[in-house]
Write a structure and sequence with these properties.
Blueprint (H helix, E strand, L loop, with lengths): L1 H12 L18 H5 L10 H10 L2 H59 L8 H10 L1 H15 L14 H19 L5 H8 L10 H24 L5 H16 L8 H25 L4 H13 L1
Helix pairs in contact: 4-5, 4-6, 4-7, 7-9, 9-10, 9-11, 10-11
Protein name: Translin
InterPro entries: Translin, Translin_C, Translin_fam, Translin_N, Translin_sf
Main location: cytoplasm
Length: about 300
């Protein structure tokens, strides 16, 4: 018991760096200087120069210099590109303003023509109603000629600016077609509309869809015209309009129309035809149509 206690005290009093290995002092000793400095035979005297040469010709330095050179050149090319864009947009904007100036004059003339044609619903003489609108046709032709001159400055870009005068042209076609039908009872053909407006050039022609939409606008005016003509005592008008709209509807049926604005206007043509059919049906059942009245007079004479 006492010997064990003495051993514990002896171990406690040993220095903290004393190793418990009993053979510690017999191990070989190494010099710190010998370990820290490698032998001169293992290190080549030319290797530091090699390291210095590789550091100078490092690909990272070359890549960084190329990147910095690209960054200095990039803003120059970018600014040049956007400067070209600015010039082109300014030219297109000035050209569009000139087009809109001509289109505004076309729109003012179409308003005058439409206001004059509204008198046809008041049972005025046809020659008196058509006098003022027909006088405006030459002015429209002159304006479309000016529009063609503006578009000649940018050949091949007809449809780029087409939307600037598209709706006005559709209205013009509907008015010309209505005037032509009132005079002749026939449809205004596409070539005739081009001739009236001076749009028979290779680079400036009347778009087919604009012509067709204009005809649909014409059909929208027919039901009101029929009702007012019947009220004025023209009982033969529903039959004529019905025959015209039926032929026009059958002609539109030949077209493969997509789900666009033209298809929607074609649907409105069907509704206009239905309204005219209803008016004509009312005339028939009341025996007010000219054909029915003539037949009735013939049967009464025979009796």
């Amino acid at each position: 018991m006492k010997s064990a206690f003495r051993n514990a005290v002896a171990l406690r009093t040993l220095p903290h760096y004393h190793c418990i290995n009993p053979h510690f002092h017999s191990l070989p000793r190494f010099s710190v200087a010998a370990v820290s400095s490698p032998p001169s035979s293992l290190v080549s005297p030319s290797k530091p120069e090699t390291f210095r040469f590789l550091r100078r010709s490092s690909p990272l330095r070359v890549r960084y210099s190329s990147m910095t050179g690209g960054e200095t050149d990039a803003p120059t090319s970018m600014e040049k590109q956007f400067e070209d864009f600015r010039v082109k947009l300014d030219e297109a904007g000035s050209l569009r303003e000139r087009i809109r100036a001509v289109v505004n004059e076309i729109e003012s003339i179409t308003r005058l023509m439409h206001a004059s044609l509204l008198h046809v619903h008041q049972s005025r003489p046809l020659s008196e109603v058509l006098e003022k609108p027909k006088a405006q046709v030459d002015g429209l032709k002159e304006l479309y000629g000016r529009l063609a001159e503006v578009l000649c400055e940018c050949p091949g870009e007809y449809y780029r600016f087409h939307n600037d005068w598209r709706s006005e042209t559709q209205t013009v076609v509907s008015l010309l077609a209505f005037m032509h039908w009132l005079e002749t009872g026939k449809l205004l053909m596409h070539t005739e509309a081009e001739e009236k407006l001076g749009m028979n050039q290779a680079e400036f022609a009347l778009d087919i869809e604009d012509y067709l939409i204009g005809l649909c606008f014409l059909s929208n005016e027919m039901p009101r015209y029929v009702v007012n003509q019947v009220l004025a005592g023209n009982y033969d008008c529903p039959r004529k309009v019905l025959r015209f709209l039926t032929d026009l509807h059958a002609a539109f049926r030949m077209l493969n129309l997509r789900n666009d604005f033209l298809r929607k206007k074609f649907d409105s043509l069907k509704y206009d035809l239905k309204r005219v059919e209803e008016v004509y049906y009312d005339m028939k059942i009341r025996h007010l149509a000219n054909g029915d009245s003539a037949e009735d007079n013939g049967t009464q004479g025979q009796s």
